[in-house]
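Duplicate of #3305? Posting structure anyway:
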């Protein structure tokens, strides 16, 4: 095959596409600036919101002043006056939780009588659940301190109440922990950005050509139609990969910035070879998505119709990526043949260091086959004038 016409078409289409500010917006501004800013903004809002002291109502504090005073010394809550409508206040998020201390609670527990503390929450509401957890921790610690004090008073060992301890030990390496966490996010991000980056140029270079009336002029040029469609497909692939790479790089930089500015230790220990493997596996997927977008754009009568077809395709690409991140979904040779899902699962294996060469070969081979079929479909559609000029 003579590659010179293909290179000419590629340079011409890429130059025309980059002159459009909408291409720069979708390929650079959105993945590099908008998406990281949104993620950092959301995380900042969540962190600030969750740091707010929850409002809590204490019922029965007058009968147990010692416990109520110890609870107030925590300075974790903003206490509101007690009232009978606490259930409505919790349901309407006016307060986050209420704790009911039984009458004469302090005297009851000191007299070896059992008492029950009731905590009222809004189940499923994050702030309410956090307040309930903090209240439970307070009463658990107070109960443990009381048990230790009673054992010491009776000259009994503390192990009488706690005959054994339970200790959880992580046996996975930092690379495996990081790979498992990031392996749920990175493939999803790359898949979405690959397809999102391919949609606009695919529509513009196919259905957009029809609307502008420049497709007929292009077909009159002394270039084979195969070269034309392959040149357009390579431009779409270039923009798709550039969008994905820029998005991953900018979000990775945002993650490093978040880690350096956070007191919590975020897992971030990845193998460069594993990241290179993930990038290599994304190439046949990007070819598949780009060729599919070009084929859909060629079939559409207008840009509006092409976008109507391609937007649901974005949703169909997101679903397998989400399924791969669900707990309990393990890689097998059956799932290795499912497009997009196989890439997501394999990338997670690569990042955790638990990958097998058999899985790599099956996934790469199947995705290469799907990409070749998508390219063949785009070429076949471009050769049919009934498709190009249908009304």
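Output from current build:
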């Amino acid at each position: 095959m003579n590659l010179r016409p293909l290179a000419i078409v590629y340079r011409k289409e890429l130059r025309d596409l980059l002159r459009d500010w909408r291409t720069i917006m979708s390929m650079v501004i959105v993945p590099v600036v908008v998406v990281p800013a949104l993620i950092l903004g959301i995380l900042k809002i969540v962190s600030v919101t969750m740091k707010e002291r929850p409002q809590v109502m204490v019922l029965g504090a007058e009968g147990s002043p010692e416990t109520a005073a110890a609870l107030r010394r925590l300075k974790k809550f903003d206490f509101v006056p007690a009232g009978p409508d606490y259930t409505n206040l919790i349901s309407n998020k006016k307060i986050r939780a209420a704790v009911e201390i039984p009458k004469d609670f302090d005297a009851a527990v000191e007299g070896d009588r059992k008492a029950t503390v009731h905590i009222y929450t809004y189940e499923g509401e994050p702030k309410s659940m956090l307040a309930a957890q903090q209240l439970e921790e307070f009463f658990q610690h107070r109960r443990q301190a009381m048990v230790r004090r009673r054992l010491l008073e009776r000259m009994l060992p503390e192990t009488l109440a706690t005959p054994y301890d339970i200790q959880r030990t992580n046996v996975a390496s930092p690379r495996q922990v990081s790979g498992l966490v990031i392996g749920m996010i990175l493939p999803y991000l790359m898949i979405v950005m690959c397809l999102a980056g391919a949609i606009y140029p695919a529509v513009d270079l196919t259905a957009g050509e029809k609307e502008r009336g420049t497709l007929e002029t292009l077909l009159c040029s002394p270039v084979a139609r195969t070269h034309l469609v392959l040149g357009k497909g390579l431009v779409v692939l270039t923009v798709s990969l550039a969008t994905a790479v820029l998005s991953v790089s900018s979000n990775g930089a945002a993650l490093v910035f978040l880690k350096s500015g956070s007191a919590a230790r975020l897992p971030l220990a990845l193998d460069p070879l594993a990241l290179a493997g993930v990038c290599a596996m994304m190439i046949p997927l990007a070819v598949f998505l780009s060729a599919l977008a070009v084929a859909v754009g060629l079939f559409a009568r207008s840009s509006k119709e092409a976008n109507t077809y391609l937007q649901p395709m974005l949703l169909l690409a997101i679903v397998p990526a989400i399924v791969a991140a669900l707990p309990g979904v393990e890689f097998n040779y059956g799932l290795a043949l499912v497009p997009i899902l196989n890439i997501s699962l394999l990338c997670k294996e690569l990042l955790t260091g638990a990958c097998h060469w058999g899985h790599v070969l099956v996934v790469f081979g199947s995705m290469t086959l799907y990409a070749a079929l998508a390219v063949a479909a785009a070429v076949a559609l471009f050769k049919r004038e009934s498709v190009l000029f249908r009304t």
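Confirmed duplicate; merging threads. The domain at 54-160 is CATH 3.40.190 (D-Maltodextrin-Binding Protein; domain 2). The chain is about 70% helix and 5% strand.
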